[in-house]
Each structure stands twice: as structure tokens, then as C-alpha cells.
Design brief:
The strands form 5 sheets. This protein has a 5-stranded antiparallel sheet. A 5-stranded mixed sheet has the order 8-9-10-11-12. The protein is built from 20 helices and 20 strands. The protein has 607 residues and is α+β, with helices and mostly antiparallel strands. It folds into 3 domains: 4-299, DD-peptidase/beta-lactamase superfamily (Beta-lactamase); 311-453, STAS domain (Transcription Regulator spoIIAA, 2-Layer Sandwich), CATH 3.30.750; 465-606, Jelly Rolls.
């Protein structure tokens, strides 16, 4: 089944593909050969799932997007103290190629402008420039998840025209920021900018930072954890040059752009984003790339200062209708069906505040289980709220599953507006809306009925008490005496047949037709349903064990007809034929044991 996240990215790409503002970078001649129409988007989750749209496989040179990763490499190789003594972390407010040095120390303001990046490249570990280059290439390859090649034509073009960068390199040498030959460090800088990547590579590199320095697919650590926050901090304040302040205000994610049209954005613990579109604004940032990030931030609540958390935390226990069936006593045909098929009813217990990344994770789990799923019950008891966009994704996946014959229902929302309002807003015109149940027992019973109803129809009425499990094994002649003592009562929907706390009622009820619910009172005045009973089932039988006070309320859900037997009439028959009570007590004991097993099964499923 198609993921709603994929659908969103395709629609986002389509809505922006006609945006033709900006121009190709021309100060590096080779960059003018790019097609201005290239446009790719990629989003990678913390468990390594990549969603892409457009020209996500189109390769291009990484350019300045390499800077945070080389800075990360220098921190890992030289340590914070040495790197900080050579390169600052203050925003410059200047363009990427500005000559922005601290007036007292001569150190570059930060590692994201060219001066700082050249200095950073010179600090990477290695006995000589060749070894340093091997270290840079392997480090960036670890972030991407595979080796990266150099575009030699772009490298030579940059080297042949990089006069301003040569001036910057010699100035760094003059202030003692670069040791050794500054031209060797500069050539490595040109090479790192000429590494070939595609949109998906950028998203994985960003996701590696979002994942604490560990690549989400290879599980290789690309950066020690203690340096991740430093890299992200500098990206947040300096990554977009003289647009950095507005970027953090409007988009709110650590990011880095490059003049080839690439942008990476990082939402720690949640997503890595890569965009490629070579049309640049006057500040050297991709026009479409900025607009993509604005839309993602707004629609997916990705601002770094909003709520966050690892998406897997949105999903707790997963279990099935076989682990936790409804509390009703199914008739024989339904019991046989559920034994074979109840595992196709899937419970998913959701947690916390549901944002887009958490719901995306949940949806992928549902898609993975969909091959043998007949119904999904989303238990929202421990959900604090849900974002509008996350609610839209849930609504879309509910409709998509429904078209394929799989039901998605909600349980235990309990009228909480932080959940109901976004879910109602997500319902589109022509959609009949979502199905919500007060508790899981009601939800799973509905799913069981749906599962059973596709193949067989439940019995509408029971014509003989001998068909009831309660009288299983009773001799025919004794059943005739029991039938003679029976009285028949009819109840309307909503009638209370017995009430909790009722004293002195010694009747046993056998359902001939209709459905009833067994409810126990709660301290707040509400009730909790503990069972649902239908034709052929009975209630009130505990009077046979001497219980004189009703412990639960039994309410008619539909029109109900019951055959009723007074316990004193049963005693009279049993006084002449003790075997009657022996058989009935054996059946009652078996029913109690079965109820205990079901309760234990529920506890095990929920533990």
C-alpha cells in the first residue's frame, strides 16, 4: 500500500516544480551545465526508510553542504580545544565567500563560510595532504553510507577559477590559522566540494546527524556522539549564511546549503532531509529547497523548538484478537472461526503526542502487518494529542485500508478534544468518518463480528434450552421438566434486565434472541462492559452458588427475549433428580474456568 508520506512528497514536489525563480551559479563554470529544471526531495527516517520525489537520483556536486561533515571530522580527529582555537562558532551575517575573520585573533568566524571551511579542511587528521584527503573521503562516505566519487571536471573548474579562495587561504596562513602549505589544504577543499552525491545521499547524511552520528542503515558510527550537538548548533546558527537568522525563525532546523543547489536539514531524533534544485536566490540558497523546507516544517511540525521525541515512542504494544478476544461468550460456529482467524485483528497501542514522524512509523508498521490483517484497532488511551497533519495521515491510511477491505477503528479516545478535533478536521467531504469505540472490548467485538460475518451468519434465535451450553449433558427427561418450569420475558433495547446491587433476585436467564451487555459500575458513576452475550448464552447463574446480590447490571442492547428459570424451581426438580445439579455445577465450573483463562490471556496481552 502507498504511504501517505510518499503521497505528500509527490504532491509537494508537483506544487513547486513550476517555481522558476532564481538562477544557476555561474562563478564555477561547470555548474552552469546543470539543468535548471532538476528538482529532487528525499526524507529519511531514523530507521533508514527513504521517501523520495522528483529527480532524487540525479547526481550533483556536494559543494558547501560538505562543510558540516568535514567540520565534524576535524572535531573527531583534533578535539574541540584545537579546532576552537583555530575557528570560531559565531554567525557572521555575511555571504558564503566573505573574508570574515576575528579582528583580534584572525580566526574565521565559523566553519560554514569558506574561510572557516578551508581552515577546517586543514585540521583533518593525516600525516600529509594525501592522507588528509583519504580521511575526508572516507568520513563523508560513512555519513552517506557508501563511497563517494569526485567529479574531476568540477574539481578542475573550481581549482582553475578559485582566486578568491586562494587569497583567503594565504590570509589564513598569514594569521597562523593554517599550518603547512595552504594550497594543499585548499586543493583538498576543492575536492571535497566536488564529491558527487544525489538527493538521497544528502538525506542519509542528514539522518546520520539526526540519529546521533550513527548511519540509520549501515549502523556505522560516522561521528562520536559528543560532537553531534556541536555540529548541529553551528549549522543552526551559521549554515544558511546571511539567511541563517530568518531560516531558524521560519523553518527551525539545523541546515546547510550549497551553490550546486543542495540543502540538508536535520530534525534531531526524527528526520534527515535532502533537497536538490540548482536555481539559487541572491544569497546562494536553492529557491525550491527553501520553500520545501518551509512547507515540511509547517505541515509536519518540524520546528526544532516544537515537541519532539523518537518516532518509535509513539507505538507501544502490538497484539492480536487471539491474544485478547472480546469478553462475550461466542457460540460454537463463531468460536471455531475466531480460533482460526482472530489473529488477523491487530491492536496497536499508541503513546504520547502524535506528530507526523510518529504516525509515519505507525503507518509503516500497519502496512507491514497488512498481509494478514483484517482489522486494526488503534488504542488511543495513552495519547496526549495529535497534530493536524498527523491526523490527516491517519485518515488517509484509514481510507486506503478500507478500500482494500481492511478496517481501521479507534478506541478509548474518551472525548478528548486534543484528539477528536484534529481527527474530525481530517475527515474529507464524502467520507463517512472514523469509527470510535469507548473501550477495546467493544472495538474487538465489532471486529470479531465483521470477521465472522464475511463467511457465516450468527444464529438469530435459540428454540430449545437443550441448545444452551449451560444444560450440556442433562438427560432428555430432566430437560423436559426444566422446560415446563420456564417463563418467557421480552425486553426492549435499553432495558435493565437486572441491576447491580439488586438483592433477592434468584432467577437464571437464558437468551433466546437478541444481544445484552454485562456492565459493572465504576466509582465515577459510569459503567465498564465486561461481557456481551447473545442467543444460547445465559446470565445470573451465580445464584446457584448462593449469591443473593447482583454484582453487575445486564442491559438489553437490542430487543431481547429470555427464558427465565427460578432457582427454587430448579431446586425442586433437583431434589428428585440430584444428577441435574451435578451436571449444571460441572458446566458452571467449566464456564468459570474458561472465563478465568480469558482474563489471564487479557492480562498477558496487556502486560
Amino acid at each position: 500500500m502507498r504511504s501517505p508520506i510518499q503521497t505528500y512528497l509527490d504532491e509537494l514536489h508537483q506544487s513547486l516544480v513550476g517555481l522558476d525563480e532564481g538562477a544557476l551559479a555561474d562563478y564555477i563554470p561547470e555548474l552552469t551545465k546543470a539543468s535548471p529544471d532538476w528538482f529532487g526531495i528525499s526524507v529519511v527516517t531514523m530507521d533508514g526508510v527513504a521517501y523520495t520525489a522528483g529527480n532524487a537520483d540525479q547526481t550533483f556536486t556536494i559543494q558547501s553542504v560538505s562543510k558540516p561533515f568535514v567540520y565534524a571530522t576535524a572535531l573527531a580527529d583534533r578535539g574541540v580545544d584545537i579546532v576552537s582555537s583555530k575557528i570560531g562558532v559565531e554567525p557572521s551575517g555575511d555571504a558564503f565567500n566573505s573574508i570574515s575573520l576575528d579582528p583580534q585573533t584572525g580566526a574565521p568566524r565559523n566553519p560554514m563560510i569558506n574561510a572557516g571551511a578551508i581552515a577546517t579542511t586543514s585540521l583533518v587528521g593525516g600525516a600529509d595532504s594525501s592522507a588528509q584527503w583519504q580521511r575526508i573521503a572516507s568520513s563523508l562516505g560513512a555519513f552517506a553510507g557508501h563511497d563517494l566519487a569526485v567529479d574531476e571536471s568540477v574539481y578542475h573548474s573550481e581549482s582553475a577559477t578559485g582566486f578568491r579562495n586562494r587569497a583567503i587561504a594565504w590570509m589564513l596562513k598569514n594569521f597562523g590559522v593554517v599550518d603547512g602549505d595552504p594550497m594543499a589544504a585548499l586543493e583538498n577543499y576543492f575536492r571535497q566540494c566536488s564529491l558527487l552525491v544525489d538527493c538521497r545521499d544528502l538525506a542519509f547524511m542528514a539522518a546520520t546527524l539526526a540519529n546521533g552520528g550513527i548511519h540509520p542503515v549501515t549502523s556505522q558510527r560516522a561521528l562520536p556522539a559528543e560532537h553531534v550537538e556541536r555540529v548541529l548548533s553551528v549549522m543552526a546558527t551559521c549554515g544558511m549564511y546571511n539567511y541563517a537568522g530568518s531560516w531558524l525563525f521560519e523553518v527551525g532546523m539545523p541546515a546547510k546549503s550549497g551553490v550546486s543547489g543542495g540543502i540538508i536539514a536535520v530534525l534531531p531524533g526524527r528526520f534527515g532531509i535532502g533537497i536538490f534544485s540548482p536555481r539559487l536566490d541572491i544569497k546562494g540558497n536553492s529557491v525550491r529547497g527553501i520553500e520545501v523546507c518551509k512547507r515540511l516544517s509547517r505541515d509536519f511540525s518540524m520546528h526544532v523548538f516544537s515537541r519532539d521525541g523518537h518516532p518509535s515512542m509513539a507505538l507501544g504494544r502490538i497484539y492480536t484478537g487471539a491474544d485478547a478476544p472480546s469478553r462475550r461468550q461466542p457460540f460454537a460456529e463463531m468460536r471455531a472461526c475466531l480460533v482460526s482467524h482472530a489473529h488477523r485483528i491487530k491492536y496497536l497501542c499508541l503513546h504520547g503526542y502524535l506528530a507526523v514522524d510518529g504516525v509515519e512509523y505507525i503507518i509503516r508498521k500497519m502496512i507491514h502487518m497488512s498481509t494478514d490483517a483484517h482489522s486494526f484497532i488503534l488504542d488511543l488511551h495513552q495519547v496526549d494529542g495529535i497534530s493536524d497533519c498527523a491526523a490527516r495521515l491517519l485518515n488517509e491510511v484509514r481510507q486506503s485500508f478500507g478500500r482494500n477491505g481492511t478496517a481501521v477503528v479507534f478506541s478509548r479516545i474518551h472525548a478528548r478534544r486534543a484528539i477528536t478535533v484534529p481527527l474530525k478536521r481530517a475527515v474529507t467531504r464524502g467520507d463517512r468518518g472514523y469509527l470510535s469505540f469507548e473501550d477495546n472490548d467493544l472495538a474487538v467485538e465489532w471486529c470479531e463480528n465483521r470477521l465472522f460475518g464475511e463467511t457465516e451468519q450468527p444464529p438469530q434465535a435459540v428454540t430449545s434450552l437443550a441448545d444452551c451450553l449451560f444444560f450440556k449433558g442433562v438427560p432428555v427427561e430432566l430437560m423436559q421438566k426444566v422446560e415446563a418450569a420456564i417463563k418467557v420475558y421480552a425486553f426492549a433495547p435499553g432495558d435493565h434486565i437486572v441491576k447491580a446491587g439488586q438483592v433477592g433476585d434468584s432467577r437464571v436467564f437464558f437468551i433466546e434472541s437478541g444481544q445484552v451487555s454485562v456492565l459493572v459500575p465504576l466509582q465515577d458513576g459510569a459503567h465498564h462492559r465486561i461481557a456481551s452475550l447473545g442467543p444460547g448464552m445465559n446470565f445470573g447463574e451465580m445464584v446457584l452458588l448462593g449469591q443473593t446480590t447482583r454484582s453487575a447490571t445486564v442491559c438489553a442492547d437490542t430487543a431481547v427475549t429470555c427464558r427465565v428459570l427460578e432457582s427454587r424451581d430448579l431446586d425442586n426438580i433437583a431434589s428428585e433428580a440430584p444428577v441435574l445439579k451435578i451436571v449444571l455445577l460441572e458446566n458452571l465450573a467449566g464456564n468459570l474456568a474458561s472465563s478465568l483463562r480469558r482474563a489471564t490471556q487479557w492480562i498477558a496481552a496487556l502486560a
